[in-house]
C-alpha cells in the first residue's frame, strides 16, 4: 500500500510539474498574473509571484529526474556500451509509447587527419567535436565517443520523431562538426557523414538490431562521403548480407584462380614499341562474369586479404614474363601494385628475391608500383626499407597516380623512385586544354631535372597521345592504346601491334 501511495504521489507530482511547466502555462502566465492583480490588487500579485515557484518546487520541478531535466554529456563507448544503452532507451520507449533514434557520425578523412597532424591532435579534435555535439542536442540525449573518428548519438524518448525531423537533426549535427578547430596555431576543418535509424524503422526489437541498422546507414553514407546523410532502409540490410557473402566468395576466389591478372600495355612515345605491361586484378566470377575492382578491392582490404592478392598478382606477373619469353615476344618489364600492408612486411625483399629466383627472372624486369598517397603520407621506416631494398635488388620503382598524394621531392628521392606515372586527371583533354598542358609540362620538367622516367596514365585519344609525345612524356598507357586483357589475348595483340609499327612507312632525311 505504501509503495502504491508513493507511486501515486510521484505520478501526481509529475503531472503537476508538467502542467506548471508546459508551454500553455507560459502562454497564459502574463494573463494570470495580470488577472490576479486586477481582482485582488497588490496582495494577490504577491501571492501569485511567490506561490507559483513554491508549488513548482514542491512538485519537484527544480530537481526532476526525467530526461527533460538531465544533462547531456559525452561518454566513452567503452564505459557505456552502445547496444546496452539502446536496449534501455527502447525499453523506456515501449513503456511510455514514445520513440527514439540512433545516429552514427563518422569524421570524413579521419585517417588523413592522423597522418598529417598526429594522434594527439586527432584526439583533441575528437574531444572538441564531442563537446560540440552535446551543445547541439537536448538535455537527456546521449553522445558516445567511439574510436577512429566515430560518434554515436542516442535520442531521449520523444512523442514524435519522423524522417524529416531526423534529417534536420543530422544537418544540425553536421554543422556542429564543421565549425573550424584550432590546434597549435593551425586551423583544422572537418566534416562528417551521418547514418541514422529511428526506432519506428528498427528491423528488429532490440538494441543490437537498431545498432546494426544504423551501421548499415552509415556505411551507405560513407560510400557517398563527404558530408552525406543516409537513413536506414530495408534494402541496405540486404546489401550488407550480399557484401558479407561476396567477401566470403572473394577469399575463395583468390585461392581457386578466379581473381587473376589482366595486363595493360605501356608503349614508348618515341618508338611505339611495348615497354612493359601493368598487371591489374580482375575477378572472373563463374556466374556474374567480370566483377569490377571497385567492387571487390575494398572487400579484400576490409577482410585483410590485400597481402594475399599481391602474392597472386606477383605469381601471374612472373608466369606472364616466362610465357612471353617462350614465344619470342619482347616485354622488358611488368608492373605489380604493392599496397602499404605488403610494404610493411619486413620480409618482403627476401620474398621477392625468392620469387625471382624461382622463376629465373631478372630483378630489373619487375616494376614495383607504389601509390603516391602511400609515399606522401608514410613516415614508416619499414615501408622505406622495403622500397629501397627492392630498388637495391634491381627492381624498378614506379610512383603511381602522381599528382594526387602531394609527395615532396625529398620523399621521391628517399624512396628510390625511378619513374613517375602521371595521374589520369592531368591527362584528360591535354590536347585541348592549355592549363592541362602547362601542368603536364611542369611535371615533365621536374622529372627531367630529377632524372626520372615518365609515364602518362589514362590516355584515351590519339590527340592526347600525340600531345604527350610532343611535351616529352616517355611512355603512355590507357584505353586509347589497349584495354586490360587476359594473358592469352596479349600474344595476338602484341604481334598485331608490332606488325603495325614495322609496316609504318619510314620518313627518310633529305639528301640520303
Description:
The protein is an alpha/beta fold and 512 residues long. The protein folds into 3 domains: 2-58; 70-232, Alpha-Beta Plaits (2-Layer Sandwich), CATH 3.30.70; 267-500, TIM Barrel. 53% of the residues lie in helices and 17% in strands. The protein has helices at 2-21, 23-58, 82-96, 110-117, 119-135, 163-178, 207-223, 234-256, 293-302, 306-326, 340-343, 348-359, 372-376, 381-393, 409-414, 424-427, 434-449, 462-471, 487-502; strands at 74-76, 101-107, 142-145, 150-154, 181-183, 186-188, 192-198, 229-231, 259-268, 274-285, 289-291, 334-337, 366-371, 396-402, 419-422, 453-456, 475-476. It has an 8-stranded mixed barrel, surrounded by 6 helices. Helix 1 (2-21) crosses helix 2 (23-58), helix 4 (110-117) packs across helix 5 and helix 12 (348-359) packs parallel to helix 14. The longest helix has 36 residues, at 23-58. The chain is elongated.
Amino acid at each position: 500500500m505504501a509503495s502504491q501511495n508513493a507511486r501515486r504521489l510521484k505520478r501526481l507530482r509529475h503531472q503537476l510539474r508538467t502542467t506548471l511547466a508546459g508551454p500553455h502555462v507560459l502562454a497564459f502566465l502574463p494573463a494570470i498574473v495580470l488577472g490576479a492583480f486586477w481582482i485582488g490588487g497588490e496582495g494577490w500579485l504577491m501571492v501569485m509571484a511567490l506561490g507559483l515557484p513554491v508549488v513548482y518546487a514542491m512538485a519537484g520541478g527544480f530537481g526532476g529526474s526525467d530526461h527533460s531535466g538531465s544533462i547531456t554529456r559525452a561518454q566513452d563507448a567503452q564505459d557505456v556500451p552502445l547496444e546496452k544503452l539502446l536496449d534501455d532507451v527502447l525499453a523506456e520507449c515501449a513503456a511510455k509509447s514514445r520513440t527514439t533514434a540512433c545516429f552514427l557520425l563518422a569524421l570524413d578523412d579521419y585517417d588523413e587527419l592522423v597522418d598529417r597532424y598526429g594522434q594527439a591532435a586527432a584526439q583533441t579534435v575528437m574531444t572538441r567535436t564531442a563537446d560540440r555535439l552535446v551543445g547541439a542536442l537536448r538535455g537527456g540525449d546521449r553522445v558516445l565517443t567511439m574510436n577512429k573518428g566515430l560518434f554515436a548519438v542516442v535520442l531521449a524518448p520523444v512523442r514524435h520523431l519522423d524522417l524529416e525531423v531526423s534529417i534536420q537533426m543530422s544537418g544540425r549535427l553536421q554543422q556542429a562538426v564543421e565549425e573550424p578547430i584550432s590546434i597549435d596555431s593551425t586551423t583544422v576543418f572537418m566534416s562528417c557523414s551521418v547514418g541514422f535509424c529511428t526506432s519506428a524503422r528498427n528491423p528488429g526489437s532490440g538494441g543490437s538490431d537498431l545498432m546494426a541498422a544504423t551501421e548499415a546507414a552509415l556505411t551507405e553514407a560513407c560510400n557517398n562521403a563527404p558530408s552525406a546523410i543516409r537513413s536506414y532502409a530495408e534494402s541496405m540490410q540486404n546489401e550488407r548480407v550480399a557484401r558479407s557473402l561476396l567477401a566470403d566468395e572473394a577469399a575463395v576466389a583468390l585461392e581457386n584462380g578466379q581473381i587473376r591478372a589482366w595486363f595493360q600495355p605501356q608503349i614508348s612515345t618515341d618508338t611505339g614499341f611495348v615497354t612493359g605491361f601493368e598487371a591489374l586484378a580482375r575477378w572472373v566470377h563463374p556466374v556474374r562474369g567480370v566483377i569490377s575492382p571497385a567492387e571487390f578491392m575494398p572487400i579484400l582490404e576490409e577482410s585483410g586479404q590485400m597481402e594475399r592478392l599481391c602474392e597472386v598478382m606477383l605469381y601471374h606477373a612472373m608466369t606472364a614474363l616466362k610465357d612471353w619469353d617462350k614465344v619470342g615476344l619482347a616485354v622488358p618489364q611488368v608492373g605489380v601494385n604493392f599496397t602499404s600492408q605488403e610494404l610493411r612486411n619486413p620480409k618482403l625483399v627476401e620474398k621477392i628475391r625468392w620469387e625471382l629466383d624461382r622463376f629465373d627472372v631478372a630483378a630489373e624486369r619487375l616494376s614495383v608500383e607504389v601509390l603516391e598517397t602511400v609515399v606522401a603520407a608514410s613516415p614508416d621506416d619499414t615501408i622505406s626499407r622495403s622500397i629501397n631494398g627492392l630498388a637495391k635488388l634491381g627492381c624498378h620503382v614506379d610512383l603511381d597516380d602522381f599528382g594526387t598524394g602531394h609527395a615532396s621531392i625529398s620523399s621521391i628521392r628517399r624512396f628510390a623512385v625511378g619513374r613517375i606515372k602521371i595521374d589520369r586527371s592531368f591527362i584528360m583533354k591535354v590536347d585541348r586544354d592549355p592549363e592541362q598542358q602547362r601542368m603536364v609540362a611542369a611535371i615533365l620538367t621536374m622529372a627531367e631535372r630529377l632524372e626520372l622516367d615518365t609515364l602518362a596514365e589514362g590516355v584515351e585519344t590519339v590527340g592526347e597521345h600525340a600531345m604527350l609525345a610532343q611535351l616529352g612524356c616517355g611512355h603512355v598507357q590507357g584505353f586509347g592504346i589497349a584495354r586490360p586483357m587476359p594473358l592469352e589475348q596479349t600474344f595476338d595483340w602484341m604481334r598485331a601491334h608490332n606488325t603495325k609499327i614495322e609496316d609504318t612507312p619510314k620518313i627518310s632525311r633529305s639528301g640520303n
